[in-house]
Amino acid sequence: MIKMNATQILLFFLLFTSTSCEKEELYYSKGDMKITIETGNNWLHDFPLFLGFTKKNPPQFAVWIEDESGNYLSTVFVTYKIASESWKSNNGNRRKESLPHWCHQRGVIYPDGLLLPTKEDPLIDGVTGASPKTNKEIQISLSDFSYPIVIKAEFNHSVDFNDFFPENAEAGDDNYSGGKEGSGQPALVYSDTVYPTETIVNLKLIGRSSSDGTNGSIYTDLEKITTAKSIVESIKVTLIK
Fold first, then answer.
1. Max alpha carbon distance in the chain (Å)?
2. pTM, two decimal places
3. Can you give the pLDDT at residue 27?
């Protein structure tokens, strides 16, 4: 198993850019990596507003890179609400249950003891963006790709309750997910290893995150996950040869 040292990591990452499919097309060069997220039937979710009105919300998600040993290297993309604590209807809930695996892998602790970026200390604009309402394409331009890397992606909807992860679950219960303004169904994590010799890799669903966000573990029991499995149709990584 190959491990990258700090110098190799710095040489490895050159540029991250992204676009939604309805926007200007990205242009790729030899050696670039393209990550294509194809939306599923439940990419847009009914978020309650008031008086019975709802809004179609896309999920919050993060895409990042690790080495083969599971060490976090860099975030490629994360939605703006997570990256800057810009929730509008969370009633002070920092939403630690939203993307807990990414948060714990990244491992940055903020002044309130949580692993989520804050309004005062958001992530840089280069890796953040609005949640797209359609397919998402992310470009990575690499200065050196001589080592296998692991690409991960984590997706979650707010208030995505089902019979197994209900709104009325209480703190301390195995199925508690943040309460009325929480997640409901926990975040799902997709992953695969990308080798320099490959051309196309499709990320696989490897499990779910902690429902209440208290740890960064991945759980493989997906029997109680329903509509969240169809937030994403596919995540394809293409190496431009």
1. 56
2. 0.90
3. 84
